[in-house]
Specification:
heterodimer, A: alpha+beta, Arc Repressor Mutant, subunit A, 57% helix, B: 407 residues, three-stranded antiparallel β-sheet, 6 strands, 9% strand
Chain lengths: 171, 407
């Protein structure tokens, strides 16, 4: 029987809970170190793909069709748009800044895209950010929240779409 | 008027400063202004200004001349001066700059080979002028690019169309910044910068060893111009590489994210149009029961099934996954109830409405709602009742559940 690292149980529990494990958590470095072993472990045991990015890690599955992930992407897209429209540097604000919960709620409600968000889980905003706090995508501190490094996953998604779109237009 | 005097021209500019600025702005970037537009500008200006202005007067002071197409072209001497006083420069294609600095090479090569003192003096003066013009060009380009980039960054109205913003940033990087960098690149043997270094080396010696005092003085002037030019270039290069390039890269990258998001939001109801699949992090795949006794009882039951054949276990896993999306629905139902006195029984009844096949795993996927943070569970009585599931019978406590009221 092979030896497991001391954090093994915690790593497995957190990842199976759908949580992102984020640097500088020691768990993240253990996963990085044992990339091959853990990739195989999750693949063989659960048929999940282990994704290790530069500073965060998470499990994914092609069989998952999560409306909540779609909702989070919508939320981030519309928040970015509103910040950009108000002349703020949206990337800096999202990657390093913090947001007042009720001000953000208000900002989204005033957006012309609110009619889309209103039909999603974002409509109950406090509940919504708590859900994503549980996945380590958001950190809540009093009446403020900020995004963790895992938010980059959704920026990459947007970049991929835009690049595909550019290719499509060129081709 | 037979001969134009400088004072007359300056007076014209001073008296009609606002008109000149209007005409300058309307004629950019090629400084050609439509016949009708010019007439309209004159008409509007004359309403509230005295002395009045007329096309004849404009032609008299050589401010503009009419083209065969009837449009008017502003005179180049005016436009260079006006660009300077309004601090509003037009962009030249880097190709134009490239052609200009090539002449420096040619003049310098000629300077090195000629022996005629008069020719040396003319060549030195020409090189000084070309360097000066070139420096001025570089300065203009940098200023213009910086102010345009700033406006690209902040002027959401004009550049609200993301793809335009992106296109503009990419265009400037490819057509201006990159070629300008090449022209100015320090290490490149054919760059303007290398030409300056060569001239500096040559003149630093010549200013002491040239044949005559007059020539020594000319070489010294060239030496001084080159040293000044290098400092100026360093300054502009710094703006280009340290400010402009990162700023444009940033606009490019940010616009890419925003346009990707834009496309996603527009197609949100048509996932097949996302082009790229959404990230698919897994949802919570398991939970642990809150009550120790219940937990161990549950584990005991689950263990029984684990010891059955692996096929059955596998099927259960699939079922569990299929059930999970529904937990949102059941939670909604639960919240509608306001308060549930017997949570486990409620779960059973709620499931019963949808299926007769209530398995342990299905039942657990709903009872896991108890772990939700916004729900409060109260457990007081020690009594247990037994519930018969399809694949197990379990003893459950009575638990009261209601929604947590947020502060």
């Amino acid at each position: 029987m092979k030896e497991y690292p001391s954090e093994h149980k915690k790593i497995v529990n957190e990842l199976l809970d759908g949580k992102f494990i984020i640097s500088p958590s020691p768990l993240f470095y253990t996963i990085q170190e044992l990339e091959d072993e853990y990739t195989e472990f999750f693949e063989k045991s659960f048929n999940f793909k282990l994704n290790i990015e530069a500073d965060f890690s998470y499990l994914s599955s092609n069989e998952v069709n999560e409306k909540r992930t779609r909702d989070f992407t919508l939320f981030l897209a519309i928040l970015s748009r509103e910040l950009d429209y108000s002349g703020k540097n949206f990337r800096d604000k999202i990657e390093v800044g913090s947001f007042d919960i009720s001000e953000t709620k208000e900002l989204l409600r005033q957006s012309s895209k609110w009619e889309i968000l209103e039909k999603t889980t974002v409509s109950e905003f406090d509940k919504f950010i708590k859900t994503w706090r549980n996945k380590n995508l958001i950190i809540i501190n009093g009446n403020k929240f900020k995004f963790t490094k895992a938010v980059k996953l959704f920026f990459s998604f947007a970049i991929d779409i835009a690049n595909e779109k550019l290719m499509e237009n060129m081709g | 008027m037979i001969k134009l005097s400088g004072k007359y021209i300056l007076k014209f500019l001073q008296n009609h400063y606002e008109f000149v600025q209007e005409a300058f702005n309307s004629s950019k970037p090629d400084f050609i202004i439509d016949n009708d537009i010019l007439e309209k500008l004159i008409e509007e200006y004359n309403i509230s200004n005295d002395p009045k202005i007329s096309i004849t007067k404009l032609i008299d002071v050589k401010f503009c001349r009419q083209l065969p197409t009837k449009d008017y072209k502003l005179d180049i001497h005016y436009t260079s001066f006006l660009q300077f006083i309004f601090d509003d420069f037009t962009l030249d294609l880097p190709q134009t700059l490239k052609d200009r600095y090539r002449t420096i090479f040619e003049l310098f090569t000629e300077l090195k080979t000629t022996n005629k003192p008069n020719k040396i003096i003319v060549l030195i003066q020409s090189i000084i002028t070309v360097i000066d013009v070139f420096l001025n060009d570089i300065h203009r380009q940098t200023q213009r690019l910086l102010s345009d980039t700033e406006s690209l960054k902040v002027n959401a109205d004009e550049y609200s169309d993301l793809s335009k913003r992106l296109e503009k940033a990419v265009f400037w990087i490819d057509e201006y910044i990159e070629p300008l960098n090449k022209i100015l690149e320090k290490g490149h043997p054919e760059s303007f910068y290398s030409a300056l270094v060569e001239i500096q080396k040559y003149t630093s010696e010549k200013q002491y060893v040239a044949d005559s005092f007059k020539l020594k003085r000319e070489y010294k002037k060239l030496y001084g111009s080159v040293i000044y030019a290098r400092a100026e270039l360093d300054h502009n290069l710094q703006k280009l590489t340290r400010e402009l390039r990162p700023l444009l890269d940033r606009i490019k990258n940010d616009s890419i994210i925003l346009s990707g998001f834009y496309h996603f939001v527009e197609n949100v109801d048509y996932p097949e149009n996302y082009i790229v699949p959404l990230p698919n992090p897994i949802k919570k795949t398991k939970g642990s029961a809150i009550f120790k006794e219940f937990h161990s009882e549950a584990e005991f039951f689950v263990d029984q099934f684990i010891y059955k054949t692996s096929d059955i276990y596998y099927e259960e896993q699939v079922e569990e996954q299929e059930w999970l999306p529904d937990s949102t629905y059941f939670k909604e139902q639960l919240l509608k109830e306001d308060k549930v006195e017997d949570f486990y029984l409620w779960c059973f009844d709620a499931l019963k409405k949808h299926t007769d096949e209530i398995t342990l795993s299905k039942y657990f996927s709903i009872t896991n709602l108890l772990l939700e943070e916004d729900l409060v569970a109260e457990y007081k009585e020690d009594d247990r009742i037994t519930i018969e599931l399809k694949d197990a019978s379990i003893k459950i406590p009575k638990v009261r559940v209601y929604e947590r009221v947020s502060k």
